[in-house]
Amino acid sequence: MSEIFNEIDEDLRREQFKKLWERYSIFIIAAAILIVAGVGGWRGYQYLEAKKAAEAGSAFEAAIGLSEQGKKTEAEAAFAKIAADGSRGYRGLARLRAAADAAAADPKAAAKLYDGIAADPSIAVTEQDLARIRAASLMMETEPYAEMRQRLEPATGEGRTFRHTARELLALSAYRANDATAARQWLDMIGNDARTPASMRSRAEALQALLPPAAKS
What we know:
Number of strands: 0
Structural class: mainly alpha
InterPro entries: SecYEG/CpoB_TPR, YfgM
Shape: elongated
Main location: membrane
Low-confidence stretches: none
Mean pLDDT: 79
Number of domains: 2
Distance between the termini: 99 Å
Transmembrane segments: 24-42
Protein name: Ancillary SecYEG translocon subunit/Cell division coordinator CpoB TPR domain-containing protein
Subcellular location: Cell membrane; Membrane
């Protein structure tokens, strides 16, 4: 008797499945097509991005070769093309390299190029901070402390890759401006950061010794 009931249950399930299929098959097929199309589209996107990155890498190496050969005009044009059309990672690198090449001939113009990189939200934060550091290094001798602070302070935060260098540059700039309070602030930040490189810590201690005694409250 139980076998008869089992057969009846199976027949009922088959009948229910048939009705469901007749009613919803078009949606099931459409969903399957969308899934296959989506996977295929994503794979296609990944392939195109990888191809674009490889092409940008080759173009970047070629541009560096032009620069090293002294073909500055051709190198500048090549880096500009990568910055405009290359993959995201190489766009930032191309702009950084173009600014570095410009620094030898015109430090102020190069600093402006670095400032443009630092202000571009499409550029990775690490590359933005590197641009800030390089611009500040170029302008250290001529730029007042207030402008150096405006330029570099975003890179001094905890967890930022170039925070140690940014803090040291600001300490030096404040010292040059005879602002002992500001110099001490940055030097203390260097000394209190457990990850500060030993060589930088030694330089900070040496500069600290040159400062006048802090005023007693």
